[in-house]
Amino acid sequence: MANDSGPPELVLFDLGGVLCRFEPDRRAAELAAAIGVTEDEIHALVFASGFDQECDLGIHSETAILERFRRLGFPGDRDELRRAWAKAFIPDRAVIDLAIALRSEGVVVATLSDNGPVLLAAIESVVTPSAIDEHVFSCMLGATKPDPAAFLAALEFLDARPQQTFFVDDNPVNVLSARRLGIRGEQANKAADVESALRSVGLLRAH
């Protein structure tokens, strides 16, 4: 294990806002069209109602989520729900290339994302599998960022130490929470800023 002042051995990337652009209206439009309601109704039924937050916390299984949507009138199967859910996430190819480069240098790369089991099941259709060693979602942890419990559970899952971890998120509140636990972290949401942040801690030396 390298000393704590050296380059991190683990990089945690936020998903929506760093590895991907997050455009939830695309998902709402897809679901609304399938069910035959307005996008506003989707927002009210799924997101404003708190149901989505419960999914992020792992309260509802993917099967339970599909059953709820079928009660709302969703005609599709599990795969079609996954495709609709994934519509909100548009991969940032430049950031994903940085993740691939990190892995080529022996760095462990993982996501740390506030998301539920539907997206987790669909994630390899969103993010190139070769870019990520592990996807760590809040639904696996029972906590969402910036709750310290989410970071601690993620580190335990990944068998990692705070001092050897670097966290990149577009939300400064999440970065501050990570830093309070001894995790190095930076706010970034564009590829150039992500690259700069990684280089600032001694990563990407071969690129």
Automatic annotation (TrEMBL):
CDD domains: HAD_sEH-N_like (cd02603). This is HAD family phosphatase. It comes from the Bacteria. PANTHER family: ALPHA-D-GLUCOSE 1-PHOSPHATE PHOSPHATASE, FLAVIN MONONUCLEOTIDE HYDROLASE 1, CHLOROPLATIC. SUPFAM superfamilies: HAD-like. Signal peptide: none annotated. InterPro entries: HAD-like_sf, HAD-SF_hydro_IA, HAD_sf, PGP-like_dom2. It comes from Rhodococcus qingshengii JCM 15477.
